[in-house]
Amino acid sequence: MFHVKHRVIIIGSGPAGYTAAIYLGRAGFNPLLITGALAPGGQLVNTTEVENFPGFPEGIMGPDLMDRMKEQAKRFGAEFLADDVVSVEVLPAQGGDKPLYRLTTSDGEQFDTAAVIVATGSNVRKLGVPGEEELSGHGVSYCATCDGFFFRNKPIVVVGGGDSAFEEALFLTRFGSSVTLIHRRDTFRASQIMVDRAKANPKLTLVTNTIVTAIESGTDSPASADAAQSETAGSNAVSPVANALGGGLLANHAGLLAGLSKQPPKHVTGVTLRNTVTGEESNLDCAAVFVAIGHTPATDFAADLVERDDDGYILVDGGSTRTSALGVFAAGDCVDRTYRQAISAAGMGCRAALDAQAYLE
Protein backbone atom coordinates (compact mmCIF):
# COMPACT_ATOMS: atom_id res chain seq x y z
CA MET A 1 0.00 0.00 0.00
CA PHE A 2 1.35 3.40 -0.93
CA HIS A 3 1.11 6.42 1.34
CA VAL A 4 0.36 9.67 -0.49
CA LYS A 5 0.76 12.74 1.71
CA HIS A 6 0.91 15.21 -1.20
CA ARG A 7 -1.41 14.62 -4.14
CA VAL A 8 0.85 16.76 -6.32
CA ILE A 9 4.59 17.40 -6.11
CA ILE A 10 6.39 20.17 -8.00
CA ILE A 11 10.01 19.53 -8.97
CA GLY A 12 12.05 22.71 -9.30
CA SER A 13 11.38 26.25 -8.22
CA GLY A 14 11.77 29.52 -10.08
CA PRO A 15 8.81 31.44 -11.52
CA ALA A 16 7.16 28.32 -12.99
CA GLY A 17 7.46 26.18 -9.87
CA TYR A 18 6.46 28.88 -7.41
CA THR A 19 3.48 29.99 -9.50
CA ALA A 20 2.26 26.39 -9.77
CA ALA A 21 2.59 26.11 -5.98
CA ILE A 22 0.60 29.32 -5.46
CA TYR A 23 -2.29 28.10 -7.62
CA LEU A 24 -2.36 24.57 -6.23
CA GLY A 25 -1.99 25.76 -2.65
CA ARG A 26 -4.84 28.22 -3.08
CA ALA A 27 -6.97 25.39 -4.49
CA GLY A 28 -6.36 23.36 -1.32
CA PHE A 29 -3.97 20.73 -2.69
CA ASN A 30 -1.15 21.31 -0.15
CA PRO A 31 1.58 20.82 -2.77
CA LEU A 32 5.16 19.88 -1.96
CA LEU A 33 7.75 21.85 -3.90
CA ILE A 34 11.18 20.20 -4.10
CA THR A 35 13.19 23.30 -4.87
CA GLY A 36 16.66 21.98 -5.65
CA ALA A 37 19.48 21.73 -3.13
CA LEU A 38 21.81 24.54 -4.17
CA ALA A 39 19.86 27.44 -5.66
CA PRO A 40 16.13 27.47 -4.88
CA GLY A 41 14.49 30.10 -7.05
CA GLY A 42 16.12 29.15 -10.33
CA GLN A 43 18.22 31.47 -12.48
CA LEU A 44 16.63 34.61 -11.03
CA VAL A 45 18.52 34.17 -7.76
CA ASN A 46 21.63 34.94 -9.81
CA THR A 47 20.09 38.08 -11.27
CA THR A 48 20.33 41.56 -9.84
CA GLU A 49 17.68 44.05 -10.95
CA VAL A 50 14.66 42.75 -12.88
CA GLU A 51 12.94 45.60 -14.71
CA ASN A 52 10.52 43.77 -17.02
CA PHE A 53 8.40 41.75 -14.59
CA PRO A 54 4.91 43.33 -14.50
CA GLY A 55 3.88 45.04 -11.29
CA PHE A 56 7.28 46.43 -10.30
CA PRO A 57 7.66 49.80 -12.06
CA GLU A 58 10.89 50.57 -10.20
CA GLY A 59 12.29 47.10 -10.81
CA ILE A 60 13.00 44.40 -8.23
CA MET A 61 16.02 42.31 -7.30
CA GLY A 62 15.78 38.79 -8.71
CA PRO A 63 16.26 37.07 -5.33
CA ASP A 64 13.64 39.36 -3.77
CA LEU A 65 11.13 38.48 -6.48
CA MET A 66 11.68 34.77 -5.85
CA ASP A 67 11.39 35.26 -2.08
CA ARG A 68 8.05 37.00 -2.57
CA MET A 69 6.76 34.20 -4.78
CA LYS A 70 7.86 31.62 -2.22
CA GLU A 71 6.18 33.47 0.65
CA GLN A 72 2.99 33.74 -1.37
CA ALA A 73 3.00 29.99 -2.03
CA LYS A 74 3.72 29.32 1.66
CA ARG A 75 0.78 31.50 2.63
CA PHE A 76 -1.51 29.13 0.73
CA GLY A 77 -0.12 25.98 2.33
CA ALA A 78 2.68 24.89 0.02
CA GLU A 79 5.54 23.00 1.64
CA PHE A 80 9.18 23.15 0.55
CA LEU A 81 12.12 20.77 0.51
CA ALA A 82 15.60 21.96 -0.52
CA ASP A 83 16.80 18.83 -2.29
CA ASP A 84 17.27 17.42 -5.79
CA VAL A 85 15.10 14.74 -7.39
CA VAL A 86 17.30 12.03 -8.91
CA SER A 87 14.61 9.66 -10.20
CA VAL A 88 10.86 9.26 -10.69
CA GLU A 89 9.40 5.76 -10.67
CA VAL A 90 5.95 4.78 -11.95
CA LEU A 91 3.97 2.77 -9.38
CA PRO A 92 1.00 0.49 -10.06
CA ALA A 93 -2.40 2.16 -10.19
CA GLN A 94 -4.37 2.03 -6.94
CA GLY A 95 -8.12 1.49 -7.26
CA GLY A 96 -8.31 3.07 -10.71
CA ASP A 97 -6.50 3.55 -13.97
CA LYS A 98 -4.29 6.44 -12.86
CA PRO A 99 -0.72 5.62 -11.82
CA LEU A 100 1.14 6.90 -8.80
CA TYR A 101 4.70 8.17 -8.86
CA ARG A 102 7.57 7.71 -6.42
CA LEU A 103 10.18 10.46 -6.33
CA THR A 104 13.62 9.78 -4.87
CA THR A 105 15.84 12.65 -3.76
CA SER A 106 19.61 12.90 -3.57
CA ASP A 107 19.32 12.43 0.21
CA GLY A 108 17.52 9.12 -0.30
CA GLU A 109 14.06 10.32 0.76
CA GLN A 110 11.10 8.97 -1.18
CA PHE A 111 7.74 10.61 -1.80
CA ASP A 112 4.66 9.09 -3.44
CA THR A 113 2.23 11.30 -5.32
CA ALA A 114 -0.63 11.21 -7.81
CA ALA A 115 0.63 14.05 -10.01
CA VAL A 116 3.97 15.65 -10.81
CA ILE A 117 4.85 19.06 -12.24
CA VAL A 118 8.37 19.32 -13.66
CA ALA A 119 9.65 22.90 -13.50
CA THR A 120 13.39 22.36 -13.35
CA GLY A 121 14.35 25.02 -15.88
CA SER A 122 17.53 25.04 -17.93
CA ASN A 123 21.13 26.08 -17.55
CA VAL A 124 22.92 28.47 -19.87
CA ARG A 125 25.94 27.06 -21.66
CA LYS A 126 29.08 28.98 -20.86
CA LEU A 127 32.27 29.66 -22.77
CA GLY A 128 34.53 28.47 -19.99
CA VAL A 129 37.18 31.10 -20.68
CA PRO A 130 39.19 33.27 -18.25
CA GLY A 131 37.23 36.29 -17.07
CA GLU A 132 33.77 34.86 -17.74
CA GLU A 133 32.78 33.86 -14.20
CA GLU A 134 34.29 36.84 -12.38
CA LEU A 135 32.75 39.33 -14.82
CA SER A 136 29.30 37.76 -14.85
CA GLY A 137 27.06 40.63 -13.81
CA HIS A 138 29.73 43.18 -14.73
CA GLY A 139 29.45 43.09 -18.50
CA VAL A 140 29.09 39.37 -19.15
CA SER A 141 25.47 38.39 -19.69
CA TYR A 142 23.39 35.53 -21.05
CA CYS A 143 20.19 37.47 -21.74
CA ALA A 144 19.98 40.39 -24.17
CA THR A 145 16.36 41.11 -23.27
CA CYS A 146 17.36 41.43 -19.62
CA ASP A 147 20.53 43.45 -19.94
CA GLY A 148 20.83 45.12 -23.35
CA PHE A 149 19.39 48.40 -22.06
CA PHE A 150 22.35 48.88 -19.73
CA PHE A 151 24.88 49.18 -22.55
CA ARG A 152 23.49 52.06 -24.52
CA ASN A 153 25.94 53.62 -26.97
CA LYS A 154 28.68 51.15 -26.09
CA PRO A 155 30.35 48.42 -28.19
CA ILE A 156 28.92 44.96 -27.60
CA VAL A 157 30.11 41.45 -28.49
CA VAL A 158 27.78 38.48 -29.02
CA VAL A 159 29.15 34.93 -29.13
CA GLY A 160 27.22 32.25 -31.04
CA GLY A 161 26.04 31.18 -34.46
CA GLY A 162 22.44 30.00 -34.15
CA ASP A 163 19.11 31.76 -34.47
CA SER A 164 19.18 32.76 -30.81
CA ALA A 165 22.56 34.43 -31.18
CA PHE A 166 21.38 36.36 -34.24
CA GLU A 167 18.16 37.38 -32.50
CA GLU A 168 20.17 38.64 -29.54
CA ALA A 169 22.62 40.50 -31.79
CA LEU A 170 19.87 42.18 -33.79
CA PHE A 171 18.04 43.13 -30.61
CA LEU A 172 21.22 44.61 -29.14
CA THR A 173 21.74 46.91 -32.15
CA ARG A 174 18.93 49.00 -30.63
CA PHE A 175 21.24 49.88 -27.76
CA GLY A 176 24.91 49.39 -28.56
CA SER A 177 27.04 51.74 -30.60
CA SER A 178 28.12 48.60 -32.46
CA VAL A 179 27.53 44.87 -32.19
CA THR A 180 30.06 42.24 -33.25
CA LEU A 181 28.85 38.65 -33.54
CA ILE A 182 31.65 36.11 -33.21
CA HIS A 183 31.27 32.52 -34.44
CA ARG A 184 33.79 29.70 -34.38
CA ARG A 185 32.94 28.32 -37.84
CA ASP A 186 32.68 29.81 -41.34
CA THR A 187 29.00 28.88 -41.67
CA PHE A 188 26.13 29.67 -39.34
CA ARG A 189 23.51 27.37 -37.84
CA ALA A 190 21.06 30.25 -38.00
CA SER A 191 18.39 30.39 -40.68
CA GLN A 192 19.31 32.27 -43.85
CA ILE A 193 16.74 34.97 -43.24
CA MET A 194 18.37 35.78 -39.89
CA VAL A 195 21.81 35.91 -41.49
CA ASP A 196 20.50 38.19 -44.24
CA ARG A 197 18.95 40.55 -41.70
CA ALA A 198 22.21 40.70 -39.79
CA LYS A 199 24.24 41.46 -42.90
CA ALA A 200 21.82 44.24 -43.81
CA ASN A 201 22.16 45.93 -40.42
CA PRO A 202 24.90 48.60 -40.55
CA LYS A 203 25.54 48.37 -36.80
CA LEU A 204 26.21 44.61 -36.88
CA THR A 205 29.49 42.96 -37.89
CA LEU A 206 29.88 39.20 -38.39
CA VAL A 207 33.25 37.62 -37.54
CA THR A 208 33.68 33.95 -38.47
CA ASN A 209 36.33 31.26 -37.84
CA THR A 210 37.04 32.99 -34.54
CA ILE A 211 36.74 32.07 -30.87
CA VAL A 212 36.89 34.10 -27.67
CA THR A 213 39.79 32.88 -25.55
CA ALA A 214 39.51 35.38 -22.69
CA ILE A 215 37.36 38.25 -21.47
CA GLU A 216 39.36 41.25 -20.33
CA SER A 217 38.53 43.58 -17.49
CA GLY A 218 39.37 47.00 -16.15
CA THR A 219 38.62 48.89 -12.95
CA ASP A 220 36.76 52.15 -12.60
CA SER A 221 38.24 55.03 -10.71
CA PRO A 222 36.62 55.52 -7.28
CA ALA A 223 34.82 58.62 -8.56
CA SER A 224 33.02 56.65 -11.25
CA ALA A 225 32.41 53.47 -9.25
CA ASP A 226 28.86 54.36 -8.26
CA ALA A 227 27.90 55.14 -11.86
CA ALA A 228 29.33 51.88 -13.14
CA GLN A 229 27.62 49.91 -10.38
CA SER A 230 24.28 51.45 -11.35
CA GLU A 231 24.89 50.77 -15.03
CA THR A 232 25.39 47.03 -14.56
CA ALA A 233 22.62 46.63 -12.00
CA GLY A 234 20.47 44.68 -14.43
CA SER A 235 23.02 42.07 -15.40
CA ASN A 236 22.58 38.37 -15.22
CA ALA A 237 24.33 37.59 -11.91
CA VAL A 238 25.03 39.08 -8.51
CA SER A 239 28.55 39.49 -7.22
CA PRO A 240 30.23 36.43 -5.68
CA VAL A 241 29.82 37.98 -2.22
CA ALA A 242 26.14 38.67 -2.70
CA ASN A 243 25.59 35.21 -4.17
CA ALA A 244 27.33 33.62 -1.19
CA LEU A 245 25.02 35.47 1.17
CA GLY A 246 21.98 34.01 -0.61
CA GLY A 247 18.97 35.76 -2.10
CA GLY A 248 16.88 35.60 1.06
CA LEU A 249 19.57 37.38 3.08
CA LEU A 250 20.16 40.30 0.73
CA ALA A 251 17.76 42.56 2.58
CA ASN A 252 19.48 41.83 5.90
CA HIS A 253 22.91 42.66 4.52
CA ALA A 254 22.05 45.92 2.79
CA GLY A 255 24.64 47.82 4.80
CA LEU A 256 27.40 45.38 3.95
CA LEU A 257 26.51 45.33 0.26
CA ALA A 258 26.33 49.12 0.20
CA GLY A 259 29.86 49.24 1.55
CA LEU A 260 31.06 46.73 -1.01
CA SER A 261 29.49 48.76 -3.82
CA LYS A 262 31.83 51.63 -2.97
CA GLN A 263 34.79 49.53 -4.05
CA PRO A 264 35.88 50.19 -7.64
CA PRO A 265 34.16 47.37 -9.59
CA LYS A 266 35.73 45.46 -12.41
CA HIS A 267 33.95 45.55 -15.74
CA VAL A 268 34.41 44.20 -19.25
CA THR A 269 36.85 46.16 -21.41
CA GLY A 270 37.38 43.72 -24.28
CA VAL A 271 37.91 40.18 -25.49
CA THR A 272 40.90 38.20 -26.70
CA LEU A 273 40.23 36.39 -29.97
CA ARG A 274 41.91 33.58 -31.88
CA ASN A 275 41.36 32.77 -35.54
CA THR A 276 40.64 29.04 -35.81
CA VAL A 277 42.23 28.82 -39.28
CA THR A 278 45.42 30.88 -38.94
CA GLY A 279 45.85 30.77 -35.16
CA GLU A 280 46.36 34.53 -35.14
CA GLU A 281 45.36 36.28 -31.90
CA SER A 282 43.84 39.74 -31.62
CA ASN A 283 41.99 41.98 -29.18
CA LEU A 284 38.65 43.68 -29.54
CA ASP A 285 37.47 46.46 -27.24
CA CYS A 286 33.91 46.16 -25.92
CA ALA A 287 31.82 46.98 -22.86
CA ALA A 288 29.74 43.81 -22.78
CA VAL A 289 29.85 40.19 -23.89
CA PHE A 290 26.56 38.38 -24.47
CA VAL A 291 27.00 34.60 -24.61
CA ALA A 292 24.36 32.90 -26.78
CA ILE A 293 25.59 29.36 -27.36
CA GLY A 294 22.50 27.60 -26.08
CA HIS A 295 20.80 26.21 -22.99
CA THR A 296 20.73 22.75 -21.47
CA PRO A 297 17.36 21.78 -19.95
CA ALA A 298 17.66 20.14 -16.52
CA THR A 299 15.65 17.06 -17.40
CA ASP A 300 18.07 14.12 -17.31
CA PHE A 301 16.35 12.66 -14.25
CA ALA A 302 13.13 12.40 -16.29
CA ALA A 303 14.67 10.75 -19.36
CA ASP A 304 12.78 7.47 -18.79
CA LEU A 305 9.61 9.17 -17.59
CA VAL A 306 8.51 11.55 -20.36
CA GLU A 307 9.25 12.14 -24.02
CA ARG A 308 11.88 14.76 -24.76
CA ASP A 309 13.27 16.24 -27.96
CA ASP A 310 16.83 15.70 -29.15
CA ASP A 311 18.09 18.57 -26.99
CA GLY A 312 16.40 17.33 -23.82
CA TYR A 313 13.41 19.69 -23.71
CA ILE A 314 10.26 18.01 -22.44
CA LEU A 315 7.54 17.63 -25.06
CA VAL A 316 4.00 18.69 -24.14
CA ASP A 317 0.63 18.19 -25.78
CA GLY A 318 -0.19 21.26 -27.89
CA GLY A 319 -0.83 24.37 -25.82
CA SER A 320 -1.23 22.37 -22.62
CA THR A 321 1.43 21.32 -20.12
CA ARG A 322 0.54 17.62 -20.34
CA THR A 323 3.49 15.32 -21.06
CA SER A 324 3.51 11.80 -22.49
CA ALA A 325 3.14 10.38 -18.96
CA LEU A 326 -0.35 10.44 -17.47
CA GLY A 327 -0.43 12.79 -14.50
CA VAL A 328 2.96 14.39 -15.26
CA PHE A 329 3.04 18.02 -16.36
CA ALA A 330 5.91 20.32 -17.32
CA ALA A 331 6.36 24.08 -17.29
CA GLY A 332 8.98 26.78 -17.71
CA ASP A 333 12.39 26.64 -19.33
CA CYS A 334 12.58 22.83 -19.30
CA VAL A 335 9.85 23.06 -21.99
CA ASP A 336 10.30 26.53 -23.49
CA ARG A 337 13.30 26.95 -25.78
CA THR A 338 11.95 30.15 -27.36
CA TYR A 339 11.00 32.80 -24.81
CA ARG A 340 12.81 31.88 -21.58
CA GLN A 341 11.46 34.84 -19.61
CA ALA A 342 10.34 34.92 -15.99
CA ILE A 343 6.85 36.10 -16.92
CA SER A 344 6.30 33.40 -19.55
CA ALA A 345 7.57 30.74 -17.13
CA ALA A 346 5.17 32.01 -14.47
CA GLY A 347 2.30 31.83 -16.95
CA MET A 348 3.18 28.27 -17.84
CA GLY A 349 3.39 27.39 -14.14
CA CYS A 350 -0.19 28.63 -13.78
CA ARG A 351 -1.28 26.46 -16.70
CA ALA A 352 0.47 23.42 -15.25
CA ALA A 353 -1.29 23.91 -11.93
CA LEU A 354 -4.69 24.18 -13.62
CA ASP A 355 -3.96 21.12 -15.78
CA ALA A 356 -2.91 19.13 -12.72
CA GLN A 357 -5.98 20.30 -10.79
CA ALA A 358 -8.29 19.19 -13.61
CA TYR A 359 -6.52 15.82 -13.75
CA LEU A 360 -6.77 15.22 -10.01
CA GLU A 361 -10.41 16.23 -9.82
UniProtKB/TrEMBL annotation:
GO terms for molecular function: thioredoxin-disulfide reductase (NADPH) activity. Gene3D superfamilies: FAD/NAD(P)-binding domain. Keywords: Disulfide bond, FAD, Flavoprotein, Oxidoreductase, Redox-active center. The keyword Disulfide bond applies. PROSITE patterns: PYRIDINE_REDOX_2. Residues 7-220, 274-349 form the FAD/NAD(P)-binding domain. InterPro entries: FAD/NAD-bd_sf, FAD/NAD-binding_dom, Ferredoxin-NADP_redctase_2, Pyr_nucl-diS_OxRdtase_2_AS. It catalyses: [thioredoxin]-dithiol + NADP(+) = [thioredoxin]-disulfide + NADPH + H(+). Coiled coil: none annotated. PANTHER family: THIOREDOXIN REDUCTASE 1-RELATED-RELATED. This is Thioredoxin reductase. It comes from Bifidobacterium myosotis.
